[in-house]
Amino acid sequence: MSDLPYTLKTATGTEIEFAFPLHGETDSPVRVAQLLTSILAALDREIRVLGSTSNGDVLQALAMALAARSAMIEATHDVTAELARSLVATALDAASNSTRKAPPSGHA
To answer: Where are the domains of the chain?
Structure first.
């Protein structure tokens, strides 16, 4: 299994570096990275428009989107649910090993 290196920058300027393990049947790591970037950018845009939004609401909406997308796959619920659970667990494990770099603060 190969890893997808991915770096994001938060609204506060913190950089987070990930090494996301890719599923053995991943077709295109480049497409995965592009979709991830698009999803995160769409979330940022919507939150800027909607205003104050709790992290719990964001995570809940993402979980529901994953469930909805899984239901769209022409396979049994057990197969898609297990795949989704496995992918989420792997990604969360990668997040626990991510590296955070806060921007410099204070006065020189």
So the answer is: 3-101
